[in-house]
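Technical note accompanying the year-one report. For the benefit of new consortium partners, we illustrate the data format agreed upon in the data management plan: each record pairs a sequence with a structure-token string. No post-processing was applied to the example shown here.
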Amino acid sequence: MPTGPKGQKRPADVIGNAVKVMQIATGEAEEEFEDDGKDPAAKALGKKGGKARAASMTPERRAEIARKAAQKRWSANKR
């Protein structure tokens, strides 16, 4: 059975899936979400982490990290 973007069960046929999406959009049916088992507070902090790290870095350090990543990326393709 196909799954939605968060792993929800969806009908396998196209018409059934379209009806289900329409029912959710109009409020006739509730969208079921399965608990992923992660702590909501930890998820919220994780979303903030990358932005906070980038804000605390100097532009030179960010460029250094980007340069190193590009070297790794391009050296891996030359095998």
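Partners are asked to follow this layout when depositing records. The helical segments are 14-26, 40-56, 59-77.
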